[in-house]
Amino acid sequence: MAFVPLQHHRQMVMLLPIHVVAGDVALVPVSIALAKAKRAGAHHRTGMVFAVAMMVVAVTGICMVLLGADVFLSGISLFSGYLAASSWRDIRRRGAWSATDRLLAVFIGISAVVMAGIGLARLGDDPTIGITMLVFAGIAAGLTTFDVVRLSRPAPSFRGPRRRPPDQDAGRRA
Hints:
Elements: H1 6-35, H2 41-66, H3 72-92, H4 99-122, H5 127-151, H6 166-173
Helix pairs in contact: 1-2, 2-3, 3-4, 3-5, 4-5
């Protein structure tokens, strides 16, 4: 663990509970989302809660690293942030790929390089952390490859939730 100056320590003490609670909150909706059919309303709503909670985890993790927390947290935070942001983007995307989609692919590629660097640097002093970071770097490299291939093809058409025709909704209310 790196030396953390007292003023940064106080800020980290404030961020850590937010970070942990957001991570805990993310576990509940992801369990529900995985159990529900993709087109079900509960899947969509719980998936959104999961994505927001994971973005909070990612942002607080990066903030804590900037305040002096172990650099290991940066790789995991970048990884979590990418997964949440790309999920959110896939849900919200309408039409062709955008600059945001390409930016996310660059982001996970850079994250793969950062995690690989951290992993290699940590192999000597803490092999467990080093190997863990190298595994995450490999996963991030795979996601980068997937994104590059996916972005080289036309974007799939949006297949949003199936909506009933208005006349069917009127019959249900009666």
